[in-house]
Every structure is written in structure tokens, then in C-alpha cells.
Design a protein that fits this description.
The chain is mainly α. The protein has 17 helices and two strands.
């Protein structure tokens, strides 16, 4: 819950901006915007809202660059709305019945209305960008931010295409997987950090440092998420345990396993992944046993640390007070403190 977060006030400000953007102008459209508010956890007090990682990253980066984070709230809201448009559609594509311990939009209102709610949230995210013009930003910076967001959205869709395509393959390399992650997950994390620089400064070198920071953070975040997808609990993730394996997802642990296994082991893994999703419980349990025998979890933890340290090196090169950003990275990637 937001109240337990060290960023509680910042999250409340972000959510306030989102509520203002999603306020229905016509009574008969209240249920339309209500679907979006429900998905975001803003329809009822006490609902799970998610961590608001991307808008927090943008506002904290903007603050680290010497800006007033309140001015950047429209950009933060735009990032969060864009991210959640992809999640509404992702839940449909993956047939996920729950998110954050609650039924997903499609499982409550049906697929057609869920698609429309996702489309609407995308369109509203674009309108949110225009609110930056009322916060004193130069028009060229608003335009640059809009371009950045559009490019990131295309990359996310490309990454989603690759992620779905990988489900039926067993020959995905680690580098191919990381390239997919750089699009599906990394694009909006990178855009959150880079977008703050676009709004705050014309310094090209500083922007480049924040691009490197966002890219490394994105890789660390997805690797940690992949770890939770196999070794995380329902209480922690809000999803069924071993959900990624059940759905035949070729996440980083599985890709690493195919790379590290013996020829006989790869043959066994292919056979276990052969049935249509959802995989039988026996197959899932056996795959996890093989991952543990190959010490995949330890390899994943080492990779998370390596990406996290690259992110820290990049953000420190940018200068300024980056303690809050480092804490945010640690929290989002399973680091201590």
C-alpha cells in the first residue's frame, strides 16, 4: 500500500494527477473511466495500486537534476498511464485472471470492454503530456518528451511481440532475450529516466548517462521479476506461484537453463515444455528441479547485481544527489536497504 512506502506523498501526488486526468466529463462515461481507475487501484480506498515505479523514477530523477517534481507530474502520469495500457492488454493476451490479488479488467468486464479501456488509457496518456504546457516547460521540451514516449511505446509493442513469439521456441539465446527485455520492460524505464532529463536540461552528455542508467535498471528489474516468477510467492507477486513456468514463458531462468544444460538436459527440457499451456503440475515441478540443479537462481542473482551496479555507475556519473534514486533501484530489484 502507498502509505507504507517511503515515497507515500510522491505517490499520492502522482495518483492525484491521474485522478484529475481520468475524471469523467459525462455521467454515462463514468463506468468507462471507472474501469481504468479500477485497474490502477484508484476506484476504492485501500486497493492495491502497484509500486508506481516508473512515475517515481521520473519524478525522483527530475528532482535529482534540480527540478521541482511537482512540475513534472503530468509527465509522470503519462508514463504510468502508458504503462498500464500495456498491462490491461497484456492480461488479455496472457489470459491472466488476477493482478495485485484482484480480478483483471477483462475477467470483470469482458475482453471487448477491456481492449477499449486499454485503448482509452493509451489515448489519455497522450493527452496527459499536453498538461506539461501549463507547467512552464518550453514547447520544444514538451515535444521532445512526447516523441520519446511515442518511441518507447513502439519499443514496448515490439518487445511484446517477441515475448509472445518466444513462448513457442526453445532456441532463444540469452542475448536475444535481453534484447527483448530492453524493449518490453526497459523502454519505459529508460524513458522515465531519460524523459526527466529531456524536461530538465539540454545537456546531451547528462541525457546519455541517464539513458545508460535506465537501460541497466530495466535489465536488473526484469531479471528480478523473472526470479520472482519462479521462486516468488503469491503473497509477494499477486499471481499464482510458478506462473511463468505454467504458462510456458521463456523467461531468463529458462533461457539460461537451455544454455547451460547438457544435450540430454536440453532434450528433457524441450519435452517438458512441449504440451500446450497450462503445463501439467508434474512438468512444472520437474522444470523447477532442473533449474535448481543447474544453479540458475544463483546465476540470476549475480546478473541482477551486475546490472544494478552498472545502473549505479551511470547515475553517479550524472552527478547531483542520487541517493533516492539508488534506494529506488535497490528496492525494485531485491537489493538490501
Amino acid at each position: 500500500m502507498a502509505s507504507a512506502s517511503p515515497h507515500a506523498q510522491r505517490i499520492a501526488d502522482i495518483d492525484g494527477e491521474i485522478r484529475a486526468i481520468l475524471a469523467a466529463r459525462e455521467a454515462e462515461l463514468a463506468p468507462f473511466y471507472g474501469m481504468m481507475l479500477y485497474h490502477l487501484g484508484l476506484a476504492e480506498p485501500g486497493s492495491a495500486t502497484g509500486k508506481r515505479l516508473r512515475p517515481l523514477l521520473l519524478t525522483e530523477t527530475f528532482a535529482a537534476l534540480g527540478g521541482d517534481p511537482g512540475r513534472a507530474l503530468p509527465a509522470a502520469a503519462a508514463i504510468e498511464l502508458l504503462h498500464n495500457f500495456t498491462l490491461i492488454h497484456d492480461d488479455i493476451e496472457d489470459h491472466d485472471p488476477t493482478r495485485h490479488h484482484r480480478p483483471t479488467v477483462w475477467s470483470v468486464w469482458g475482453v471487448p470492454q477491456a481492449i477499449n479501456a486499454g485503448d482509452g488509457m493509451y489515448a489519455v496518456s497522450r493527452a496527459a503530456v499536453q498538461r506539461l504546457r501549463t507547467r512552464g516547460f518550453p514547447p520544444d521540451r514538451v515535444l521532445d518528451f512526447a516523441e520519446l514516449l511515442d518511441t518507447a511505446c513502439v519499443r514496448v509493442c515490439e518487445g511484446q511481440y517477441l515475448d509472445i513469439a518466444f513462448e513457442t521456441r526453445t532456441d532463444v539465446t540469452v542475448e536475444q532475450y535481453r534484447a527483448m527485455v530492453a524493449k518490453k520492460t526497459g523502454a519505459l524505464i529508460r524513458a522515465s529516466a531519460e524523459g526527466a532529463a529531456v524536461l530538465a536540461t539540454d545537456d546531451v552528455a547528462l541525457r546519455a548517462a541517464l539513458v545508460r542508467f535506465g537501460e541497466a535498471f530495466g535489465q536488473a528489474f526484469q531479471a528480478h521479476d523473472d526470479l520472482l516468477g519462479i521462486w516468488g510467492t503469491t503473497e509477494r507477486t499477486g499471481k499464482e506461484e510458478l506462473n511463468d513456468l505454467t504458462k510456458r514463458k521463456k523467461t531468463l531462468p529458462v533461457v539460461l537453463a537451455f544454455e547451460r544444460a547438457s544435450p540430454e538436459g536440453r532434450t528433457a527440457l524441450r519435452a517438458l515444455f512441449a504440451p500446450e499451456a497450462p503445463l501439467p503440475p508434474h512438468n512444472v515441478a520437474r522444470i523447477r528441479e532442473m533449474l535448481e540443479a543447474l544453479e540458475i537462481r544463483r546465476a540470476l542473482e549475480e546478473e541482477i547485481v551486475a546490472h544494478r551496479e552498472r545502473a549505479f555507475a551511470a547515475i553517479r556519473a550524472a552527478g547531483g544527489d542520487v541517493a533516492a534514486l539508488e534506494a529506488l533501484v535497490r528496492s525494485a530489484t531485491g537489493g538490501a536497504g
